[in-house]
Amino acid sequence: MPLGGQAFEEFTAAYLREVQGYVVMSHVDYFRSKDMIEHIEKKFKQGKQGREPRQGYWSDIDVLGLKKGEAIVVSCDENCSKKVDSILKELRYAEEYVRKTYGISNIRKMYVFAVCWSPRKCPEKFKKLEENKIEVKSFVDMVREFINKLRKDYKVLGVRGKFTDPILWALRELDLIRTCLGKEILPPIPREEKYRQNIVVEVNQR
């Protein structure tokens, strides 16, 4: 079974904090005002042209990261079920909120997922997101980067003490298991080019 939504968001927040150095907030509530809706719909040609924008409503950002002169907004999707249009809309509004609230123009957008139940659909979906300047990462991507960060800390800082954070502890144990077994224990990253090409060929043959 995939990670629960909130658990996956907490893992993503820990990844941004520990690996990428952001100050992180999860489940950031914000109000999509009528003016904001009108601005986004005009800018990206969303919704029916010429109609009055609907009333404002509340929404939230799954994970928001901030550091000097830069921000990142993340859409978390544990089972890779969100549609492309939904992700684009979610992140465009989040980007606009951060720009207005924090006065930051350098804003990264990222989509992360834990498990892809329909791998044949993934390549096309990822390509569309990346064409819209949205970074895509899987749970395995983040775990690998997390473990590499821990290994680097071991070598540079000599950090081998106990971890009180459950995520860091679990990742350290995974790395210890890999060391004891003498082989990689994580599955291949499903977004590797070879994987994508094989899937595309298989789809075209159907």
- CA radius of gyration: 19 Å
Low-confidence stretches: 194-206
Q: Structural class, please?
A: alpha/beta
Order of helices and strands: HEHEEHEHEHHH
Walk me through the structure:
With 206 residues, the protein is an alpha/beta fold. The protein has a single domain (5-205), classed as 3-Layer(aba) Sandwich (Trna Endonuclease, Chain: A, domain 1), CATH 3.40.1350. It contains 7 helices and 5 strands; from the N terminus they run H-E-H-E-E-H-E-H-E-H-H-H. The radius of gyration is 19 Å and the shape is globular.
Strand and helix map with partners:
Layout: H1 5-18, E1 23-32, H2 34-44, E2 57-67, E3 70-77, H3 84-102, E4 107-113, H4 122-131, E5 134-138, H5 139-157, H6 166-181, H7 193-205
Parallel strand pairs: 3-4, 4-5
Antiparallel strand pairs: 1-2, 2-3
Helix pairs in contact: 5-6
